[in-house]
Amino acid sequence: MSAESDALARVLVVDDSRLIRELVRDALDGVARLECCDSAEAAIEALAREPADLVLSDLSMEALSGLDLLERVRRTCPETEFILLTAHASVESAVEALRMGAADYLQKPIQPEQLRAVVDRILSHRRLLMENQRLRGALRTVESCRTLMRCLDAGEVYAVALDLLLHAVSGRRGLAIFHRSGIPGSDGVAFRGFEEREALALRRSLIEEKPALQLDALRDAQLGNPPALEEAFRVARVPIARTLAVPLRGGESELGMVWILEDDHPFGAREIDQATLIAGHADLALSNSERFLRAKERAFVDDVTEVYNVRYLLQAMEHEIQRAERFGKPMSVLFLDLDHFKRVNDQHGHLVGSEVLRQLSRVLGECVRQVDTLARYGGDEFTIVLIDTGHEGAVVVAERIRRTVSETIFEGGRDAPIRLTISIGVATFPDHWRSRDGLLDLADKGMYLAKSRGRNRVCSASELE
Length: 465
Known about the structure:
Shape: rod-shaped
Structural class: alpha/beta
Largest sheet: 5 strands, parallel
CATH class of the largest domain: Alpha Beta
Strand order of the largest sheet: 2-1-3-4-5
Helix content: 40-55%
CATH superfamily of the largest domain: Reverse transcriptase/Diguanylate cyclase domain
Number of strands: 16
């Protein structure tokens, strides 16, 4: 175990004399967690099993000497401290040991008090250095997390958090999976370090076949390979060894998980601390993105009906027209206006009129798909954008809306129930026009044509002169 933890430091004692090993063990009892080796070769094997904080080694041994072991330790375990012990000290050997990176050089016979003092000094210095490194690493991580604070889109937060986590633990492969509760079709996944074939197979397995990998059941995972994740990787034929699972969550609807995959070494306490620090900043960034989304939605939502307003409608239409043009798909616009709605306000008051508009919004919302856009254009006028819908399909939807509204009984408060009818105009991209304003104008004229023909009917832009 490392000295940066609260446990005793691990010290490796290397000497071909059993008596010396026992003397060192007695001198350092309670100061460190000791392992004794009778040769440099045995010490190298012990270090391969578990790193040490300090190596105490005799200078003269058969086969590999203490200086040979020091050179190997400096190359393979640069953070491990080293003390040489010898009964044949010379200025040259001492200088050579210190030049190669030894922390100190002690002569035999060993003086227990001196040995304890030197070891305590070196381990204390090492703890200070490791703590300093930890703090510097934490500071660098905090600085890098500023990128997260600039992310206002939740999907971007997950991707940036994945990149930061990979960098913090020196990882090569990882993925982030996320979804937003109550928002259909919002599951997403980001990959780093995978081949295209692997990423496609994993996306299919994790998103299409197992939406969001049941994140609600996995959000408390920390280390290890969740069975669902192992199964997805098995199906995709992607080998994994050990994973670091980092749950991410916002204040309300945002929920995701980042997995960092490692093949050749376990994740240490420092890496887990770094991951925890990044996760905390990512959680805060997700909460900020949720607040930004709510503020954005309030700016685009009508106060009375709680459906989108005309500002959002105009932006959505521009986007959908560009998408329809890029993919060669049709889209249609319905322009709706209640018939004789002024009578409702005059007879029942504006409070009842507003409640009727709210009820109408719910009725219209049930008549269209979630991917379509329903907006209040103004007053008692509404607009619906039907994506990937040709003219014939749009007319069918408009007729269904017209019939549903005429059959619906609206609550009139203390007064008698209210019945309404609606007139609807229909225009389609690219059949009738290719711009937003042109489509809205033709749909609006279609609606007025329906009014002129007796109301409670649907008229197409194709019927205009």
